[in-house]
Amino acid sequence: MHDIDISQVNGRILRIFLAVYDQRSVSKAAHLLEINQSTVSHSIEKLRGILGDGLFVQAGRGIIPSAHAELMAPKVRRLLADMAALVDLGEYEPHEDPEPFSIASNGSTLACGVSRIRDAIWKHVPDKTVTFRELGTSSNAEVLLDSGRANIAITVRPSKYPQALKHQPLSSDQMVVFYDPSAIEPVRTITDFCNARHATLDFGGSAKSELEKTLEKQGLTRKVACMAPNAWLLAEMIRGTNMIATLPSQVAQSAFSGLRHCPLPVTQSKLNFDLVWHRRYDNSARLKWLRDIVQVAMTPKNQTSTGPK
């Protein structure tokens, strides 16, 4: 077994390792951390010597992590997050914080929302790097927040949250039916809705949507003709076709701009979005500041109408 002198490993060298891991590039990592490439290369070489592993190997014009680095990355991410939490107890000064903010959400369905969040952060800290990560299903939130890949998440409210997560209401929206008026008429009855060809979002999860549960309770089903991983691709799939898509009305301002929408011909409760964070950062001054910024940015008075129907 390789003896490791843990005293030689510090937060700086681990942060450099993680930047190279995420960027798959020494030069991109250096740019992200605003240090020179030689510093990054020296730090990686030092860590290689300490751990007795190459960590990264050449692959074409880039690099890929070794099996050991793949195992290390989530542990290092969690460790750095825990280290930050140790000192994140007093007043937070955003202008003195060099670290980027990372927010997980389904950007394609919250495109207008994330734009407001970005602008609200930049209003206070113009040079702050803001990273939006694709969330997928709400069940992915715990992994992203626990690993430190995201500081906070914005997700559709599930039936139950894991104990490790805390949340607060953020916004709500109504589900509507989108269609291309050049190809079909608006859906007016539940029979028309069920007989129509549907295009749906597919984030890779196995849980049924609230709409599917509602239809099943009434002994109804719908015909799913195609699925896509985000709203932008879904919108392109239904343009010029007789397919319909049931989504939050706010996507009319982004991905579904130019398409029409009509009311959903089935009683469906509003779609609630929550702001979610890991319980270990509940008292973090940094994340309290970020949560307050997001909460204000997403209040109804800062939201615009959904555009033409």
TrEMBL record:
Taxonomic source organism: Parasedimentitalea marina
Gene3D superfamilies per record: Periplasmic binding protein-like II (3.40.190.10), Winged helix-like DNA-binding domain superfamily/Winged helix DNA-binding domain (1.10.10.10)
PANTHER family linked: HTH-TYPE TRANSCRIPTIONAL REGULATOR LEUO (PTHR30118:SF6), HTH-TYPE TRANSCRIPTIONAL REGULATOR LEUO-RELATED (PTHR30118)
HTH lysR-type domain sequence ranges: 12-66
Keywords annotated in UniProt: DNA-binding, Transcription, Transcription regulation
Membrane-spanning residues: none
Similarity field: Belongs to the LysR transcriptional regulatory family.
Keyword Transcription: yes
Protein name per Swiss-Prot or TrEMBL: LysR family transcriptional regulator
Top-level lineage group: Bacteria
